[in-house]
Description:
A hairpin with a 5-residue loop joins strand 11 (216-220) and strand 12. The protein is 37% helix and 23% strand. Strands 5-4-1-8-9-10-11-12-13 form a nine-stranded mixed sheet, with helices on both faces. A four-stranded mixed sheet has the order 3-2-6-7. The chain has helices spanning 38-48, 61-73, 111-122, 144-152, 165-169, 183-190, 199-211, 251-266, 269-284, 292-300; strands at residues 2-6, 10-16, 30-36, 53-59, 77-82, 89-96, 98-102, 129-133, 158-162, 178-179, 216-220, 226-229, 235-238. It has one domain: 3-Layer(aba) Sandwich (UDP-N-acetylmuramoyl-L-alanine:D-glutamate ligase). The chain is globular and about 55 Å long. The chain is α/β, with parallel strands linked by helices. Bound molecules: adenosine-5'-triphosphate and 1-O-phosphono-beta-D-fructofuranose.
Amino acid sequence: MIYTVTFNPALDYVVRVTDFRLGATNRCEREELYCGGKGINVSLVLHELGIQNAALGFIAGFTGAALKQELDARGITTDFILLPRGFSRINVKLKSGEETEINGRGPQIDPRSLEALYRKLDALRPGDTLVLAGSIPASLPADVYEQILRRLSGRELRFVVDAAGSLLERVLPYRPFLIKPNHHELGELAGTALSPDDGERIAQCARGLQRRGARNVLVSMAGFGALLVTETGEVLRQRAAQGALKNSVGAGDSMVAGFLAGYSEKGDYRYALRLGTAAGGATAFSDGLAVRSCIEEVLKTL
Ligand SMILES: Nc1ncnc2c1ncn2[C@@H]1O[C@H](COP(=O)(O)OP(=O)(O)OP(=O)(O)O)[C@@H](O)[C@H]1O
Ligand SMILES: O=P(O)(O)OC[C@@]1(O)O[C@H](CO)[C@@H](O)[C@@H]1O
């Protein structure tokens, strides 16, 4: 069973404005509202690909209730903790030529609610996969992902972490099965700027994270594809799918879901990388997260 954890779920409010003007009243051409937050996106795409999973995390207020209601309606299994105060954030995604994002801070997670999550995670069984994805609210310590992995280490769980900076860095000693930095995040960790056309340096930096504990390092590079350094030492490269970019929000999460679905289907890293790339591309070419038929169509082109 796969469990995703989203500490800071969101409603993603996507607005399209032709000529956005700062300081003026802008009217949008289109607006959409999606369930969001990285772990929730992973759950949605896994579900789309027919992989059973449950979405865990924290919700609050009427926005949190709306999130849960929508996820229930879409058949996603959820087991959220309802926070006593505040509201789940609304993240604004402004599309006007370029994409601009304003991500909310999110509600405070009190110690008792955090402990409630830990108790749910204690019930995971050997062979289960735990996906920790996205940022954490400012009220939490930066070592919270590390605390979770430390608590659960030795339990034969498969850890997947999609986060940036020290949140990611601190989990490396706990041997995560998969981490998925994009090339900018990888560069930040390695203390150097990385360009997608410098495959050799990207592979070197990914190997550096393996030396620090990660088992498989999947480096995504948006329209430039992806590179996977496997635990067996192989370096696999995959070009991106070709298509018109509509939306990059959730492409990385779709890639994580596609990779996990592909790996659970065939136990083969090359196929997992292809399905991950197809899912990431399919979301980039869709208005929201990709649907299964689109992922399958894109997969045929890779
Ligand atoms: N413009 C694009 N064209 C084709 N494929 C894309 C495009 N953008 C993203 N993808 C696919 O999705 C994968 C993940 O994208 P990206 O590297 O942007 O992840 P990310 O930075 O984690 O994104 P996000 O945080 O927005 O979810 C890429 O490796 C690629 O396969
Ligand atoms: O603020 P975080 O947790 O880093 O990112 C949150 C977020 O931008 O990530 C998802 C796309 O990956 C969106 O659904 C969501 O709004």
